């Protein structure tokens, strides 16, 4: 909050004083310059002829893709089942590893603050920084193409997600119940089960359902790199330019995503209302 | 009267209160696991073949190879960063009016519905699928990636911004209104100061997400580091892949620290 003195000695209210204003404006200017530079780089790497031609091509693809080849749906049930499994089993495995890791990482439950916690932190950061599609590139190279590679890729990406959100929840718990349970002579494991876990349970369910929904989205495209699911059909239809099949597959993916989001939203709303 | 005391053991209250639902979960989940694992075709010979490769990959993190493909790595990372920044800026510029329109307390119902529709569409279409279509329409290169990320930013940013706007404190915004402020003054002085810290936080978070996403768009030809990474894995050049992954992790960490620093500053 600042005041500016005008030439006729009246005061005028201003939101920021001069120094803050200057800093804010130079921040915006720097951002603008950076954006213009970025734009030039993108522009240089672009064939503008294709861009100007885009409406025609878009229309062309659209007319080729419509109507979708409905009878192809019979070949999609199995990949859809695989996609669902990759996401669900992948989430399950991630929970099995991620929850214990959260307890090992959280400041107030970790067995060793100087050895185990940093190791877990490194793993969490690595797991979260890398997209599941990149994890899939790796698992396909190691395990060979197929559903298993997809499951492992999804769980590798999700472990860090679970561990991070749950360890943060554990660090924020109320310590009164923990001390009360400990005062009864409970072992550390009993303390975790009866004092810590009940406090993070609701967050855990919310996070798990949310991640499952995200994983359904991700598992629909893992097939593009060979990791199973409906993405395989998408990739082969794209390679053979079978646009009516592509449109049907995208429609199927859209419906799956909307379905999973609806389920996840319902369960989360239910937990919140409790 | 008998004086036998019934000893009851205390049990934790069950997570799912309805008995039938609990039973369904207890029966359904193992059944599903058996069914899904049964339908999974796994080539165990191939898996065992691959195990030495897994070891090689993990070991390659101790000797990442930055030099052999440095030019490809440098160009890819550079392009990813450029795409991420440009798309975040444009995405946010488009998101702000849509976010204002998608806030129930600001916009009339028809505008609200249109804006919510745009958000839903952007959220339902996955980045990679949008990228495939963009590449088909606009050709290979970072422009397709830029458009994809900008489009994806709208669904994320406008939705969260709208939710924040719907949560603003009424007393402040009404005080501004009571001074006779116009709609734009009301938004600028009554809403904007309350929303701005969240705005900065979200922008930084989205920049971070866009960078991470830009790392995969290259797999479908939409520019960025993904193409190099894909090639490295295809040729089993794990030390190069490890180098790229380390760079990505370092940049993501940097973004996270910068964003938490900036958020503290703004508040």
Automatic annotation (TrEMBL), chain B:
Superkingdom as given in the UniProt entry: Bacteria
Topology relative to the membrane: Multi-pass membrane protein
- InterPro entries associated with the record: MetI-like, MetI-like_sf, PhnE/PtxC
Protein's cellular compartments: Cell membrane
Ranges where the ABC transmembrane type-1 domain occurs: 77-259
Q: Does the record's keyword annotation contain Transport?
A: yes
Transmembrane intervals: 20-40, 81-101, 214-232, 238-257
Pfam families hit by this protein? BPD_transp_1 (PF00528)
UniProt keyword annotation of Oxidoreductase present:
no
The entry's keywords: Cell membrane, Membrane, Transmembrane, Transmembrane helix, Transport
**PROSITE patterns membership:** ABC_TM1
Which NCBIfam families does the record associate with it?
PhnE
Entry similarity comment: Belongs to the binding-protein-dependent transport system permease family.
Protein name, entry field:
Phosphonate ABC transporter, permease protein PhnE
What species was this sequence derived from? Marinobacter suaedae
Gene that specifies this protein = phnE
């Amino acid at each position: 909050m600042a005041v500016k003195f005008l030439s006729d000695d009246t005061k005028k209210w201003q939101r920021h004083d001069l120094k803050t204003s200057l800093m804010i404006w130079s921040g915006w200017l720097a951002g603008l310059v950076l954006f213009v530079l970025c734009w030039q780089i993108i522009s240089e790497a672009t064939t503008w002829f294709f861009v100007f031609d885009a409406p025609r091509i878009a229309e062309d693809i659209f007319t080729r893709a419509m109507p979708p080849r409905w009878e192809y749906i019979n070949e999609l049930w199995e990949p859809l089942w695989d996609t669902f499994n990759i996401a669900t089993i992948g989430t399950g495995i991630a929970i099995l590893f991620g929850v214990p890791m959260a307890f090992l990482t959280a400041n107030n439950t970790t067995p060793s603050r100087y050895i185990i916690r940093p190791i877990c932190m490194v793993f969490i950061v690595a797991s979260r920084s890398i997209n599941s599609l990149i994890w899939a590139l790796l698992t396909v190279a190691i395990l060979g193409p197929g559903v298993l590679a997809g499951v492992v890729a999804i769980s590798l990406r999700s472990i860090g997600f679970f561990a991070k959100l749950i360890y943060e929840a554990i660090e924020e718990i109320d310590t009164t119940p923990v001390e009360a349970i400990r005062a009864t002579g409970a072992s550390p494991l009993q303390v975790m089960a009866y004092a810590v876990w009940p406090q993070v349970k609701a967050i855990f369910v919310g996070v798990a359902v949310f991640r499952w929904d995200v994983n359904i989205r991700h598992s629909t495209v893992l097939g593009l790199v060979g990791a199973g699911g409906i993405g395989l059909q998408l990739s082969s239809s794209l390679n053979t330019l079978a646009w009516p099949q592509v449109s049907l597959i995208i429609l199927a993916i859209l419906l799956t995503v909307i379905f999973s989001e609806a389920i996840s939203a319902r369960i989360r709303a239910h937990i919140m209302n409790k | 009267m008998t004086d036998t005391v019934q000893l009851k053991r205390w049990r934790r209250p069950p997570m799912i209160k309805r008995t039938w639902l609990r039973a369904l979960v207890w029966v359904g989940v193992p059944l599903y696991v058996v069914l899904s694992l049964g339908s999974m075709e796994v080539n165990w010979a191939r898996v065992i073949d691959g195990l030495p490769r897994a070891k090689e990959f993990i070991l390659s993190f101790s000797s990442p190879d930055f030099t052999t493909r440095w030019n490809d790595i440098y160009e890819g990372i550079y392009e990813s960063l450029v795409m991420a920044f440009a798309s975040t800026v444009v995405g946010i510029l488009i998101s702000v009016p849509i976010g204002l329109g998608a806030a129930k307390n600001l916009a009339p119902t028809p505008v609200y519905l249109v804006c919510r529709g745009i958000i839903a569409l952007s959220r339902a279409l996955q980045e990679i699928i949008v990228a495939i279509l963009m590449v088909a329409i606009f050709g290979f290169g970072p422009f397709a990636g830029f458009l994809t990320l900008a489009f994806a930013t709208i669904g994320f940013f406008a939705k969260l911004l709208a939710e924040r706007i719907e949560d603003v404190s009424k007393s402040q915004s009404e005080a501004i209104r009571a001074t006779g402020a116009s709609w734009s003054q009301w938004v600028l002085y009554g809403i904007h100061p309350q929303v701005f810290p969240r705005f900065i936080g979200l922008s930084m978070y989205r920049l971070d997400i866009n960078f991470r996403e830009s790392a995969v768009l290259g797999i479908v030809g939409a520019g960025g580091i993904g193409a190099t990474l894909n090639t490295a894995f295809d040729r089993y050049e794990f030390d190069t892949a490890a180098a790229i992954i380390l760079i990505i992790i370092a940049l993501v960490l940097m973004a996270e620290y910068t964003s938490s620093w900036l958020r503290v500053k703004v508040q």
